[in-house]
Prior knowledge:
The chain is mostly beta strands. The chain has 2 domains: 16-52, no CATH class; 84-213, Adenovirus Type 5 Fiber Protein (Receptor Binding Domain). Helix content is 0%, strand content 43%. It has no helices and 17 strands.
Amino acid sequence: xxxxxxxxxxxxxxxxxxxxxxxxxxxxxxxxxxxxxxxxxxxxxxxxxxxxxxxxxxxxxxxxxxxxxxxxxxxxxxxxxxxxxxxxxxxxxxxxxxxxxxxxxxxxxxxxxxxxxxxxxxxxxxxxxxxxxxxxxxxxxxxxxxxxxxxxxxxxxxxxxxxxxxxxxxxxxxxxxxxxxxxxxxxxxxxxxxxxxxxxxxxxxxxxxxxxxxx
Length: 215
């Protein structure tokens, strides 16, 4: 394809074009705009900023924004921001020893946001459990927990027999992630394991948020 300089320097007919009269480079005062189909898509501004006027910055899988020009903290392992995602997930209440059957009600829902290798999840898990035993668990996390990370999440509000509170604030129920898994398990704490609340058949509801690391 030949390149010719024959435009009138507008978005409809940029100053430098190829075969298409409305696709090319438009020149302004100390700036250059990239035009396709008669629309300004991006501009190199006079201050050096690169502005996307119309459209998104799309990166190939595995690529991202590299912050390696910045100073590094001790222990730094990566300075590449290579993922952002948000969406929904479906929490399923079960038992750690025996999963049982969960029948959700209409309020059961989960949402998540993933930035890099950190996932932030919120959930309402409400419905009826049958045939489950052991500590309460919630399966269905949108991403598998990293093999090197088994960490706690935020405090949880629970209803039904899972509710565990002695009025003094000494006891609580909280979610934990399990390494290389896609579930949370919940435990209560009063200084030893004797206070753990096991799941029972019937209606339950768990409301919580949790942040965890993925591989």
